[in-house]
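Record minuted for everyone:
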Amino acid sequence: MMKYYRLLAKDLTSLIEEAGQASQKGGLEICGLLADNGYFIELIRCRNKSKRGGSFSFYQREVAVIERLIDILNHEIIGTFHSHPLAIAEPGDSDLENAFEEEFMLIIDVIGQKAALWHIKGKNKTKVDFELI
């Protein structure tokens, strides 16, 4: 992986704030998709289907619509993001178990108010550096 990964600072800051607000409602998580537009990774917010604290799941219909739009724009979905209300920004066992065979995963640590990007491949995780622009 020799590519540079960039995120918009204002988008990440906004997500961290939103994750903090959601966690105050029974430990709810936020979630979404990561899309590569050729310049930076877009953070596309999705609704969390799970009403249980400390978990997330996607509405498949919503994801299908986003996938079609991303395809029209000639961008590529490369992974997911979600928040951890009470854990560090590292994929847990259930995150690895439910990950696609190969994807990027951005995790937001609500308490530490920071995020980490991971490359998941075959249930193995590798931390990936990213730049805020």
The beta strands are 6-7, 31-36, 41-46, 76-84, 102-109, 114-121, 124-128, 131-132. The helical segments are 9-23, 60-72, 93-98. The chain has three helices and eight strands.
